[in-house]
Amino acid sequence: MGLDWWWILVVAGIVLVLLFPLLAGLPRVAIPRHPEVEGFDDAATGAGYAEIQERVEFKSMRQTVIDHVIDALKKSSMTDAIDVLDLGCGTGHLIKELHVEIGKAGIEAVMHGIDIGSASVRECREHLARAGLPGIDIKEGDGARVPMADGSMDVVISSLSMHHWSRPEAVLAEIHRVLKPGGKMVIFDLRRDARRFYHHAFDRWFTPRMPEPLKSAGDPYRSLLASYTPAEVEAMLERTPWARERVTVAPRTVAVFVDGIKGTP
Ligand SMILES: C[S@@+](CC[C@H](N)C(=O)[O-])C[C@H]1O[C@@H](n2cnc3c(N)ncnc32)[C@H](O)[C@@H]1O
User: Fold this and answer.
1) What's the pLDDT tens digit per position in 39-48?
2) Who lines ligand 1 at CB under 6 A?
3) Which of 42, 60, 115 to mutate to test the pocket of ligand 1 (most atoms within 8 A of CB)?
4) Three-state SS for 196?
5) First vs last C-alpha separation in the chain
6) What is the pTM (predicted TM-score) of this model?
7) pLDDT for 55-93, tens place per residue?
8) Domains of the chain, CATH where assigned
9) For the chain, how big is the Rg over CA atoms in Å?
10) Residue 192 φ/ψ, nearest 5 degrees
11) Whether 26 contacts 197, CB under 8 Å
């Protein structure tokens, strides 16, 4: 029995080693962007989003974002109570889990959320209340006009939302405005120029397995097609106050991280 497992592992290892150059060598997709709708208002879509949050691929993507944010916080000198805004917070899963992980890192955090979709806001408030976090401030609003004071946030995160923004430069400028000097921006989103293999995987594997009505809307492949390339993100940042700041655009396999620190005046 032990020997069988050993052979399975050896064969799986060889297959992975052989597959790697194939996947890495596949061409990147170069297609025009197909813009997405900005927010949703219906309960069925909200329930669909809530359902997929429990799936392994979405949990692991969320964990990647959480690890990235915790890493950035540990590298900073932020230890006192910090204000963290999740822009485009959707169902609130990221807010809830990030709140726990920031606490584990020994930092006290006050979490905030904003979302343009009224169904998202409802779903988020209910999710946080069920999780025993009813006091978190979740606002309905457009990231292009954040209903918050200048310099009021220590950290602004945004996950899988940028490809929805109809005025991305305005949202990026708003993130800059609401951050305190020294405050951090962390944006995570898909990248449209992923290799062809991933376009196939999103189109043929993930989308047909989504709950209704996300499947009928073509999600998540639609999101990949609406996302930006790292080069487009860099060009966009140049047209915002972030052009004067320390910003890195770090491409991953099918995603991109944008990290910025607002300078001290
Ligand atoms: C795909 S969901 C991602 C939700 C969540 N951040 C996550 O990682 O699962 C995108 C969210 O961004 C919100 N959104 C889109 N455009 C927005 C905008 N301009 N301002 C605020 N929220 C926006 C949508 O309503 C939606 O809830």
Assistant:
1) 777 889 988 9
2) 38-39, 87-90, 94, 114-117, 120, 142-144, 159-161, 164-165, 171
3) 115
4) helix
5) 66
6) 0.92
7) 999 999 999 999 999 999 998 878 788 999 999 999 999
8) 34-261 (3.40.50.150)
9) 19
10) -65, -25
11) yes
